[in-house]
Amino acid sequence: MSSKLFNLCQYETNKLVRIRSVRLGSLKWTLNGLILMFICVMLLWNKTYQDFDLVVSSVTSKVKGVALASLPGVGPLVWDHVDYSPTPQGRNSFFVVTNVIVTQNQKQGKCPEVLPYGKVCETNKDCEVGASTQHSHGIQTGSCVKSGFRKTCEVSAWCPIETKRNPPRPALLAAAENFTVLIKNNIRFPAFNFIRRNILPWMNDSYLSHCQRRTDPLCPIFRLGDIVKEAKEDFSKMAVEGGVIAIQIKWDCNLDRWFQRCLPKYSFRRLDEKESNRTLYPGLNFRFAKYHTQNGVEGRTLYKAFGIRFDIMVFGQAGRFSFIQLIIYIGSTLSYYALTTVFIDWLIGTSCYSVESRQNYSERKVESVQDKQQCILSVSYVDEPHIRLVKRSQKKSLQLVKPMAVQQHQEDTGHLTAMLGALQQRNPQDEPPKPASDPGPDPQPTPGSGSSTGSGSNTGSGSGLSEDSGPARPAWCVCGNCKSSSHPQEELCCRHSDGPCITSSPLFEQLVLRRSLLDTVLLYRDPFIGQPTEGMQTAALRHCAYEQYIRWRFGVPPLDTHPAIPSCCVRRIRAEYPSLDGQYSGFRLGGVVSMQACSNGRL
Ligand code: ZN
Ligand code: ZN
Known about the structure:
Blueprint: H1 2-8, H2 22-45, E1 50-54, E2 56-64, E3 67-71, E4 75-79, H3 81-84, E5 93-112, E6 139-147, E7 150-159, E8 180-189, E9 194-197, H4 205-210, E10 221-223, H5 224-230, H6 235-241, E11 243-254, E12 264-270, E13 285-294, E14 297-321, H7 323-333, H8 338-349, H9 355-365, E15 376-380, E16 387-391, E17 405-407, H10 413-424, H11 506-513, H12 515-525, H13 534-554, E18 561-563, H14 567-576, H15 595-600
Parallel strand pairs: 11-14, 15-18
Antiparallel strand pairs: 1-14, 2-8, 3-4, 5-7, 5-14, 6-7, 8-9, 8-10, 11-12, 13-14, 15-16, 16-17
Helix pairs in contact: 11-13, 12-13, 13-14
The protein binds zinc ion (ZN) (2 copies).
């Protein structure tokens, strides 16, 4: 329980590799400096330290001006703002009539339909009573009557029917160019509770009566001609068919105390299709009528009005310093510094660096770890120079499993030197290696580590084990000293093809089994090892002997593999240093037996 708690209470941090290089160091600082500069420029330029809010606005407008217009059939007329802004002003827009087609004295009656809306006919049979189309001016009466040079179907309608289709050129009310409009725009930024008007506090009556857009960009009164001109259009041309112009008011406000600035900025552009000869239904027009009663009969004057609609659009935002925004921005930019690492790592990987230094960096930086699940065993045969890497199999004897790879034997030079030294200073009184010593009763395997009672046969090898006490050697053994096991991973011989057993080599006695050497190794590891009990001592010696074998045969075992000790060697070592209770832990996973475990005799 407490150990679980202890495991929770720990902190992991990344391990870094520092490359001492002037080139890379200065490159790093240059890149980081550039990134910092970029971050600062973006901070000031985009004001990312500010909280933003969008504008909420309302607009009203008032058009003023008077023009004298001569209308065909009507005569000269003075038009004031009531006449030229006939429709109720829409939301955020106003309309100014610039051209008109007048059809006077229309009354309810019957008259021939005009072409091209009407139907050309020869006799009354060609006309259908009560018929009408989307474009017709009235409902057909069923008669075919003369209309100019042709005959068309007669309709019940407001007669006479409007005949003129194209607007007059030049526009009749082109003088509307000189009209002015006063735009009143109230805005609010709800998040900051900030209110402002485009008619600024210092603007008084005399200012407003004289100000001009041309000289003062803040003036809220605009001449229509100027607006159209700023939209890069010609008023007199546009006046003929009409169109739509946008008046854009942009509020870009900085509400920070020291930099407070919140003024409108006006701009204009045309919204509808400019090329009237290329589009269907160009311009903007609509009809309205003025009604009157003459001699008890109701009549009307029909106006087809062409004009310019001005749409007022207000947009913009306000910003004010916000500590939270600043923190968020700084946080979001920290990742940019990773670009330096990515770039320099990439640079190291490219051919800018020699293969050796590239490999050096990558070896220092990357630690390869095998997936432990796979469990790779390393096998060393005495008749093969390299080490085999073998996948552990649950069914097949280790001896028979095909290797997945081979690796060069990597000498543990420190160990080799120590062993050579130990061999040279060999104590003359050292007991001679036991010739074919009796290993005693065959070591009892632990429950589960194989119940085979067979021991190796004594065919051949001089070091031999005891006289045969079991069945013949297993099929996979080629040295003759191995014993079958219920664990396939323990079924390994010391060689691959026929030949003498490694345990028969004099070096096996001297490097693996010699008591004085093992004692020295144990004492070397723990100078105050004291006098352990006999059982513990033999266990420690046995495991040191295993380790000696691994160091001798494998040198430095391949990374992430488990060295496997041949069955004959295990038997020989167990015979030399038997367990008192006859219990052995058998093959277990784990790299080289740890020193501590070895000296403790725990394994
Ligand atoms: Zn064998
Ligand atoms: Zn052998």
